Amino acid sequence: MRRHLQFGIKQVHSSYLDGRLSPHLVTEQAVKDALSLRTLNAFIRLTPELALLQAKESEERFQEKQPKSELDGIPIAVKDNFCTANVPTTCASRMLQDFVPPYNATVVSRLRQAGTVLLGKTNLDQFAMGAGTVDSIYGPTKNIWSEDLSKDKWRIAGGSSGGSASAVAAGLCYAAIGSDTGGSTRNPASYCGVVGLKPTYGLVSRHGLIPLVNSMDVPGIFARSVNDCVKVLNVIAGPDSKDSTTIRQPFRKLQLPEVDQINLRSISIGIPKEYHCLGLSPEVLATWTKIADILECAGAKVEQVSLPHTAASIFVYSILNQCEVASNMARYDGIEYGHRALDERSTEQLYATTRAEGFNQVVKTRILTGNFLLLRKNYQKYFEKALRVRRLIAEDFSKVFETNNQAVDILLTPTTLTEAPLFRDFSALSNRDQCAVQDFCTQPANMAGIPAVSIPVRLSQNGLPLSLQLMSKSLNEQLLLTVARWIEAQVSFECLESGQLQAAEQ
Amino acid sequence: MLRISNKIRFYCKIAAKSDLKSKLDFTQLRHPTKVPQQPEPNAFPDLDNNTDDDPIDSKTIQLLERLSLVDLDSEEALKTLKSSIQFANRIVDIPTENVPALYTVLEKQQLQLRNDSVTEGNCRQEILRNAKITDEDYFVSPPGNIPLEQQNE
């Protein structure tokens, strides 16, 4: 009898329509669950009053049989680097601890127009600089799949959008918004066992997303199924007059075929050999191998391809990231908004002290390194050079996607090299090494601006999610997510099966 | 109306399991695999031991601190800076003759321009609300044109 309640947004929506469920009740439950799982530290700030008010409005719309969309009344969480009108937006930093934006990011306002309920703002690495959600002034986010949530024995959620991933994985909301500059959506999705989509660069507006690396940043989507992910994408994607870097052609809403209608016989899957790098765990390798095999069994053409500049990508990414960070962070001076130090000796002194107090070591070092790489004597050697190699990396992709007779439609790779690491092992590494290892497979897609999705496949020996990544050419989300949906149906990964969640429910 | 309870989740798990297809066997393959079973040789050998050539002197550090308006406040930070520069050095030998820089992946599309007219505004109070110190309708800063005081000369 309750079969229709298997947590897909579609089923919740139809239950709202026929009155078996109500947005208010679902939201109340979500708030309660979020409070009872506070130990995860997924949220920087819950917005229960706002959420319940929005849920009530949604409920009235359903009573009048006039829901705004399929997402009406669905609780959603947003990473705390997206501006939310009159709700503090901190970037998990002291610098923006008291910042209250007067406006909504486009992603947030489109979700509002669709009638979603904002459950709260989620945790991240300070200014989204990290791969673990361990560098937040509000403390680290824990992974719901951890064997043990106590002391230092828990697993990291991944990052930088770890709070959003953790919230979806723990069943606190149906979807969440993150951002993805080098893998910040796909990496935590991989560790937390949820779907994580990085759309084509320019498909989703960045207006109101506090910038990290403008030439790579995209809003990302977390959901427990590919179908739910598509519903969110359909609401937030498309041109925006407030972001001149959005792609101008109108967005055609995606509509995925039913699983049994998906025909893989005309689809060509590429396995880029360079993505088997040192440090890839045997379990991830076996997962990658098996999924390539079942795709081939289903009739897809599977072939090995080469993206020769892959290994250079992480270095190029690191250079461009630090250069753009040095420039982007120049806006924080304490005068117009954000933290202001008590130092009135001079303007420069105020700026310096404000920034010394407002940024953590990771942010400061990236600014200093970025400015070193941008020095007049270094500009050609590092910054320009990195942009040239970036073109080679992007061309690697266009060659495999567009070479006439051998073109592939989809690339299949690991997302992360391992299962979610233990906090104590991860925090023993420097931030640079954390990112260099964890972003190996994810950041090339940001270099080329192409869409990529991480989907959970199975559990490791330790009972932790193992995920794979699919990539395709720009604006090919329809095919990318169709293949993702097919794999999802074959592997039957259960997003809400974690032991900690079951313990919390008793 | 159904009461939402935690039990629903539990129910869903059972419901999902009942029609679960046989779990995949990850050791069985039906085709010769295209996935490389050995790692690709690393094109960028680890240079981290090579810390001798000091790329950065104290004058440069002072310049960086002035440009960045953040302080390089510890040995640890200096070490990270040096190792980040070495990390960046890994790409300098990649041949890029006649390869133009890729500034944006949207280079083939025209940037959207709008008419030079006011479309929104009248939000002075909202903007000033986030400043810590204001005077009437102004932001306030301490005296300018005074160079940053730097220690560790």
Automatic annotation (TrEMBL), chain A:
| A GO BP entry | mitochondrial translation
Q: Where is the Amidase domain?
A: 38-481
Keyword line: ATP-binding, Ligase, Mitochondrion, Nucleotide-binding, Protein biosynthesis
Q: Which InterPro entries match?
A: Amidase, Amidase_dom, AS_sf, GatA
Q: What catalytic activity is recorded?
A: L-glutamyl-tRNA(Gln) + L-glutamine + ATP + H2O = L-glutaminyl-tRNA(Gln) + L-glutamate + ADP + phosphate + H(+)
Task: Enumerate the active-site residues.
Answer: 79 (charge relay system), 160 (charge relay system), 184 (acyl-ester intermediate)
Cell compartments where the protein resides: Mitochondrion
Cellular-component GO terms for this entry: glutamyl-tRNA(Gln) amidotransferase complex; mitochondrion
Query: What EC number(s) does its UniProt record assign?
Result: 6.3.5.7
Q: Could you name the domain of life of the organism this protein comes from?
A: Eukaryota
Q: Which family does it belong to?
A: Belongs to the amidase family. GatA subfamily.
Summary of subunit composition and partner proteins = Subunit of the heterotrimeric GatCAB amidotransferase (AdT) complex, composed of A, B and C subunits.
The UniProt function text for this chain reads: Allows the formation of correctly charged Gln-tRNA(Gln) through the transamidation of misacylated Glu-tRNA(Gln) in the mitochondria. The reaction takes place in the presence of glutamine and ATP through an activated gamma-phospho-Glu-tRNA(Gln).
Output this protein's name: Glutamyl-tRNA(Gln) amidotransferase subunit A, mitochondrial
Natural source organism: Drosophila willistoni (Fruit fly)
Lineage, highest ranks first:
Eukaryota, Metazoa, Ecdysozoa, Arthropoda, Hexapoda
Question: Encoded by which gene?
Answer: Dwil\GK13718
